[in-house]
Amino acid sequence: MDKIVFYSFACSVYTRILIKNHNNIKLPENIENNIIQEISKLSLKPLMLLMAVYIDNGVISGKTSNKRYEEFDRYSTCNDFFDVLDDCYPELIKKISYMITSKITGYLDLVERFENDKKQIKRELGFDADSISDCKIYVGLSDMHDGKENHILEYNGKKIVYKTRDSYNDLFWNGIINWVNEKSSDNLLFGVRTLNKQTYSWHEYISYSELHLEDKVQEYYYKIGCISFLAYLFDMTDLHMENIICSNKGPIVVDTETICQVIVDNKNYNEELSYFDRLLSGSLIKTELFPASIWTNKRKIDTSGICGRGGQIVESGKLELEFPYSDKINLNIVDGILESSNNIPKINGEFVNPKKYEKFVEKGFKETYDIFLNNKEEFTQYIEENEDLKKANIRVVFHDTQLYQDIIDFSTIPSNLTRQGLNRIYRIIEDLCEDKKEVLIGDIFKNLIVGNIPIYFGKVESKYVKTSTGEVCSEHNVKPISQVLNKIEKLSLRDMEFQRKLIELSLLNFREKYKNKEFSIKNTFKKNKPIKSSTIEKEVKMIVDKIRNRAFLSKNGYINWITIENNYPNWNIKFQDCSLYSGLSGNAILFAGCYKTFGDKEYLEVLLRIIKTIEKRLEFEEKSSSIFNGSLAVAYLYFFLYKQGFGETYYKKGVELLTQHERQILDNSDYDLLDGISGVLIILIQSYELQKDSYLLNLINKVSDKLLDHISIENDKTTWKGEAMLTGLAHGVAGVSYALIKLYELTGLTKYKNLAKNLVGYENFNFNREEGNWTDIVVDGKISREDTVIQWCHGAVGIGLARLKTNRTLNNMVDIDRALKAVIKMGMYKENDSICHGNIGNLSFLIEYYNQFKDEDIKDIIIYRLNEVLLENSGKYKSGLAKDFESVDFMSGLSGIGYEYLRLINKSLPLVSLLEM
Question: Residue 623 has what DSSP assignment?
Fold first, then answer.
């Protein structure tokens, strides 16, 4: 056993409680060691604090740091110290006593149960130990639930698993697998052999196996696909990497307690809008098998059953002792390393890349879906008559287990080991549970303060959820069995395709770093014929039809589209929000532009559906003053529609929305165009100029004062609230200077013009002559010497656009020429076609340049490259998100590409990427 901090104290506490409460029982050495380690962990923080107090007061006076630690550790075993400890931290001894009692009770139960069951265990699981004393016992392997934890026994190289719950779930799962196997010609699935004993169970131990051969790996992922359908059908969750084992029989699910999870609707959602959310929350993404989620993965690690693997860095995921065994002992929060798992096959000792086998996963899913689709009636009867399912205790998960663990850790802080501390923890749980019943709040509190992870169960034929003591603590909106039967009834080819698409999306590869390809000017450019308007019109309509065909429609006229977000190492898969960058506002702008250009009422119909959906979503979406990524994007959409002739109503709606967002606008702590107050200012100024509304002018003054108050320029350093500002349009000072010139043009005040000049000077100080481009600035203010980026969001394209639009005031021709050279030389061939960081966005700068200066050479380059883009894509465009994914989003996908094409044939349409109206 590793050396334990405050070992003497831990042994003393253990002995005292053992003698007082447990007749000084003798436990196996590894269980005793586990208990002593747990005591040390629970008491570490208060003992560190008390040691410092005793040293300061002269009670401990060793000559060296280590001697003082050793003296305190010895002193902590005396009766006087225990009296002080009990007075200061009364909850600590209670926690320790509960833990010891639970461990001892668990061990005694294990011994008795093994003795009673050993013959049956030998017969059914092939584990032939005669006595538990002959076995090695592994402890501390699972969360503690209701004072109980699982164990692994090992004898003669063979292992079995002891679980402190019944295994009706596992029996049901094995039955389903057998049913599927009977209907399938090959590729048999396997479950875990189980011995159910009503209140506990024994399971075979599944060992990891390398598969060695490519065809075996392909078969493995085919079976993963089969399992993914079963998990989807029965609304399983928690199929993360620890619960899938790669065995010589294929993938084995080793924990099935979360079958039949009820999809709980958010009561704040409109019934029709929740249709979109139910599509995802009831999809196979919920199973956690796939490296994607429908919520933000804040831990930034992939724990999915298919792709999750050990070795990932867990940011701030570990407490590390500094200077242990001395009075300088300290706890630091450091990055942790995710432990290895057994879910990914190996060939020749190397893990395979699961994403390479996506088509096999899809095939397994589809073929298993077909089995159930063709046998609905038979399988429905099988479910309705299944006794194992009726008896199963279905675990109900109210909160993330990691959140519970965080509160348990928080409860060991010295100030929380008191009565006042308990009250503090109770209030945290109340806030966590919101409108949940008092019974649930009380049960979570009761469990967490003694180190238990709360656990709740229901039955498939009941709406009620109960605590481990049988008390009703919550109620579902539907019986789990009804939800499963309804899902079976609604199995269809359309649903199969939707779920298959989700598999495809979840296993998309992230784009690799792209090296800019150099563009050479050729004499043949002038031979290119101008692209006909009819060609562009055809391309726009093709793009728009593609977007329209991918829409999801609810029965009451709402519309939405699936999109993905980069939440590395996972994808977030979701329906679009109200934003401009990747949401419904961007799509609305495209359809509005198409209607104004072509007059087709079908485009107007889609636009009105989008607006209806946006306005309903605004009722529950969190308010955000980000123009590109938040709900304030809708204000820009309204003013855009008003300016394009869709009616006075949209102007009024825009002003109303700005009024509703005033607090969020004034609280916005970002300065940039994308998410900050520079973007807000640009919208406010343009909307004010439409009708000279006095409220908008007042708000402009408030926001501009805030912008000026927080920018500081000293020599070559420019900061926002003390932090170095970036260069560039979307995230940096180019966007700010653009907003300031808008302010100057509105007010005539030279302070705005002068500040804009200074910001341009700061940005130009960071022009890298060697690269011919502007470099970004990292947070500490140092210039990044990475390869420079040439796109709208960073580098020459965005900066060039800002300089073009402020050229009349600032005379930016030197910078404009720099940007032009950079874009032509190294920005013409991007790995994608998006506005934000792709080919079309970069071409938009050249188009704006041509529109301003009528340079025929630039026109020739535009025609040449546009022709290439049209030919390269052949109707399928490369989005700015995942590799091989055609997004419908505005800034990173089809809506923006289609809109920029539309501007080539309708010159009245504004440049949305600069928030023009």
Answer: P
In a 10 Å sphere around its CB, with 0-12 CB exposed, 13-18 middle and 19+ buried, how is residue 225 labelled? buried
To which H or E segment does residue 633 belong? helix 633-643
Could you give the angle at the alpha carbon of 352 between the alpha carbons of 348 and 355, nearest 5°? 165
- 99 and 457 Cβ atoms separated by less than 8 Å: no
pLDDT at 435: 66
Tokens, residue 842:
């970069």
What count of other Cβ atoms lies within 10 Å of the Cβ of residue 906? 18
Q: How is residue 480 written in tokens?
A: 């789990």
Q: Residue 53: enclosing H or E segment and its boundaries?
A: helix 29-56
Token look-up 């959310």 returns 277
Burial class (CB in 10 A: 0-12, 13-18, 19+), 512: exposed
Query: For the segment 868-917, what is each residue's pLDDT rounded down to a tens digit?
Result: 898 887 778 998 888 788 999 999 999 999 999 999 999 999 999 999 99
- The answer to whether 281 and 235 are in contact (CB under 8 A) is no
- Identify the three-state secondary structure at position 688: helix
Q: Which residue has the tokens 């560039």?
A: 728
Q: Are the C-beta atoms of residues 682 and 742 closer than 8 Å to each other?
A: yes
Look at residue 90 in the predicted model and tell me its pLDDT.
92
Which residues are annotated as part of the binding site for Zn(2+)? 793, 836-837
Evaluate the omega torsion of the peptide bond into residue 910 and state whether it is cis, within 30 degrees of 0: no
Give CB contacts under 8 A, 24+ apart, made by 198-202.
198/166, 199/165, 199/166, 200/109, 200/113, 200/162, 200/163, 200/164, 200/165, 200/166, 201/162, 201/163, 201/165, 201/166, 201/167, 201/170, 202/117, 202/121, 202/125, 202/160, 202/161, 202/162, 202/163
H/E stretch holding 176: helix 168-183
- CA nearest neighbour of 429 among 451, 411, 444: 444
**Are 762 and 718 a contacting pair, CB within 8 Å?**
yes
Give Rg (Cα) of the chain.
Answer: 32
In contact, 583 and 891? CB cutoff 8 Å: no
φ, ψ (nearest 5 deg) of residue 271:
-55, -45
Query: Residue 734: what pLDDT?
Result: 96
Handedness of CA 728, 733, 734, 739 (dihedral sign): positive
Check pLDDT > 60 for residue 779.
Answer: no
Q: What percent of the chain has pLDDT over 70?
A: 95
Please tell me the predicted confidence (pLDDT) of residue 521.
66
Cα 551–chain centre separation? 24
512 CB-side CA count, 13 A: 1
Contact 845, 903 (CB under 8 A): no
CB 875 within 8 A of CB 542: yes
Dihedral Cα 628, 632, 633, 638, nearest 10 deg:
-160
The percent of residues in the chain predicted with pLDDT above 90, rounded, is: 79
Query: Which range (254-268, 291-305, 481-495, 763-777) has the least confidence?
Result: 254-268
> 267 pLDDT band (50/70/90 cuts)?
very low
Global pTM value: 0.91
Q: Mean pLDDT, to the nearest integer, of 472-478?
A: 91
Q: Which helix (H) or strand (E) holds 422?
A: helix 419-433
Strand 570-575 versus strand 292-293 pairing type: parallel
Report d(CA 859, CA 846) in Å as an integer.
8
The binding site comprises 793, 836-837
Tens of pLDDT, residues 865-880: 999 898 887 778 998 8
Q: In this structure, are residues 746 and 685 in contact, taking their beta carbons and an 8 Å threshold?
A: yes
Mind listing the pLDDT tens digit for each residue in 118-176? 999 999 999 999 999 999 999 988 889 999 999 999 999 999 999 999 999 999 999 99
- pLDDT per residue over 3-43, tens digit each? 899 999 999 999 999 998 888 899 999 999 999 999 999 99
